[in-house]
Amino acid sequence: MHAIPAEEATKALVGHEFPGGSYKIAHWENFLLTGCTGAEPLPNGLAHPVALFHVPIMGAGTSIAEMFELGQAESQLSIIPESYDWEIFQSLKEEVEYDISGAVVAAERRTNAQGQTYDWVQFCFDVRSPEGTLSARSTITWQYTRNML
C-alpha cells in the first residue's frame, strides 16, 4: 500500500502538463471502435466519438497508468471515475494528425457525506486540427480514494 500523499502534494498537481504530441485515428481503429458500440461506421471518414476515451490521453503523451501514478493511487481499484466530459467543436476524422495537449486543471482533497476521504483530480485534454483549430476537449474527473486509517 502507498503512503497517503499530503494534501499539499495533491493541490500541487494543478498545472502539471503532459508532454503533448499527436494522434491519428486509423481507419481500422475507428472501424473496430465503432463496431464495439454496436453502431454502423459513420460516413465520410468521420471518427466515432468513443475515440475520445483514449485518443486525448495517448496523444498527450501519457497513459492511464501514468495518471494513476501521478495522483498516487493506492491501487488499481482505488480510482473512481466521476465523469468524462467531451466537447466536440469540429467532427473528428480518420487519418488526420491531431495535436494534443493535456494538463491537470484542478486537484483537491475532499470528504464525502459518509466521511470517506478522496482526492478529486480533473484532467483536461485539447485536441487540435492540423490548422490549430480546437476540435475537441476531453475533461476527465477521477476520485482517488484514500484509506486514512
A few lines on this structure:
The protein is of the alpha+beta class and 149 residues long. Helix content is 18%, strand content 36%.
Task: Throw out a few tags for this protein.
149 residues, Thiol Ester Dehydrase, Chain A, 5-stranded antiparallel β-sheet, 4 helices, 18% helix, elongated
What is the CATH architecture term? Roll
Protein structure class:
alpha+beta
CATH homology superfamily: Hotdog Thioesterase
> H/E order of the elements?
HEHHHEEEE
Query: Major sheet: size, sense and barrel closure?
Result: 5 strands, antiparallel
Count of alpha and pi helical runs: 4
Helix content: 10-25%
Radius of gyration: 17 Å
Task: Quote the CATH topology.
Answer: Thiol Ester Dehydrase, Chain A
General shape: elongated
Q: How many separate domains?
A: 1
User: What is the typical, i.e. mean, pLDDT?
Assistant: 93
The number of distinct β-strands equals: 5
Q: What topology does this entry show?
A:
Layout: H1 7-11, E1 21-24, H2 27-36, H3 55-59, H4 64-70, E2 79-88, E3 97-111, E4 117-128, E5 134-145
Antiparallel strand pairs: 1-3, 2-5, 3-4, 4-5
Describe this structure in words.
The chain contains four helices and five strands, in the order αβαααββββ. It is α+β, with helices and mostly antiparallel strands. It has one domain (7-145): Hotdog Thioesterase (Thiol Ester Dehydrase, Chain A). The protein has a five-stranded antiparallel sheet. A hairpin with a 5-residue loop joins strand 3 (97-111) and strand 4. The longest helix has 10 residues, at 27-36. The chain is elongated, with a radius of gyration of 17 Å. The model has no long low-confidence stretch (mean pLDDT 93).
